[in-house]
């Protein structure tokens, strides 16, 4: 295709409520020597997009000021240093910003093929959460077959990815949720048990479900008072992975219990990682996880899609906390696919 000189993109016109997201004409992104330019079919919506929209999360230096950290689409241009991709390839990618747009340029190491049997809309919701869980729970915390893992936010994007990746790797996920519908969804993704934090004691139930041992790993997005529950729920030698603090960044915890159980508490954010780190995570996903995603009996995460011009509606939906799985914005090109 002949590339246009401008494109439509959803910009943050001012920090604030979802209505500050507006579709505007925007310059085309520059495809660097080691980049591919993707014609975006769909862009996933993630918590960091909401934080950026509110003015609480500036893009890192050099990143697009447009929101959007993951996309699917077709390759529209290829930098001269790039091998292995062709114009028209159907891909999904972790991007450094700028996903809410008709086109986005992305370092080639962050690009993956769309799994066989997946639509572009379905694939748009994979990269951000699967890169995050691979980097933290798998590569850093060493999740292994046979381990047990407590997964908070089990019906959301990150929690769903943690359940599915744990299940693929032969670990046993216990999902923490807030309703029977969310429990059913997490079970459908592979969770072996669920805990409803609105009516059950998370630590006590976890100890019970693991025969008194506690869990080997915890994937937490809650923080605040849940941090001490995670410590109490952990087995000796356990590892708690912190990737968000939705209920508070400060916590009162028992350091003595951490010492006595020989626990590790680690934290990470994906976006500031180097291109080399992101490429090595992508390589791990391609080798160890993509084949499972392409299996005919794989349960795809639930997707709720919005036209990209209704990005405010998608942000309101995430803030309402009623969705299952992922929220995705579909471009006019994506609507034709
Ligand atoms: N560190 C990283 O690299 C990284 C990468 C990606 C995302 N994140 C962060 O991870 C968090 C989760 O992302 P996500 O995509 O999974 O979001 P999501 O799809 O909105 O899911 C969040 C889940 O957590 C539950 N939850 C429990 N307490 C909550 C609270 N106080 N506020 C909001 N939700 C709560 C929600 O269900 P109920 O309310 O029904 O329990 C929901 O199912 C976000 O803060 C995001 O920014 C971090």
The termini sit apart by: 16 Å
Q: How many strands appear in the DSSP assignment?
A: 15
Q: Which CATH top level class of the largest domain fits?
A: Alpha Beta
* Mean of residue pLDDT values: 97
* Helical residues, percent: 25-40%
Quickly give the structural class. alpha/beta
Q: Quickly give the CATH architecture of the largest domain.
A: Alpha-Beta Complex
Low-confidence stretches: none
Give a list of the ligands: NADP nicotinamide-adenine-dinucleotide phosphate
Describe the protein.
The protein contains twelve helices and 15 strands. By secondary structure, the chain is of the alpha/beta class. The strands form three sheets. Strands 3, 4, 5, 6, 7, 14 and 15 form a seven-stranded mixed sheet that branches. A six-stranded parallel sheet has the order 10-9-8-11-12-13, sandwiched between helices. Helix 7 links the parallel strand 11 and strand 12. Helix 3 packs across helix 4. The protein is globular. NADP nicotinamide-adenine-dinucleotide phosphate binds next to helix 1, helix 3 and helix 4.
Please give the structural blueprint:
Layout (H helix, E strand, L loop, with lengths): L5 E7 L8 E7 L7 E10 L2 H8 L15 E9 L11 E5 L8 E5 L3 E3 L6 H4 L3 H14 L7 E4 L5 H12 L3 E6 L2 H10 L3 E4 L5 H8 L5 E6 L5 H8 E9 L12 H7 L2 E4 L7 H14 L1 H4 L9 E5 L3 H10 L5 E5 L1 H4 L2
Parallel strand pairs: 8-9, 8-11, 9-10, 11-12, 12-13, 14-15
Antiparallel strand pairs: 1-2, 3-4, 3-6, 3-15, 4-5, 5-7
Helix pairs in contact: 3-4, 3-9, 6-7
The chain binds NADP nicotinamide-adenine-dinucleotide phosphate.
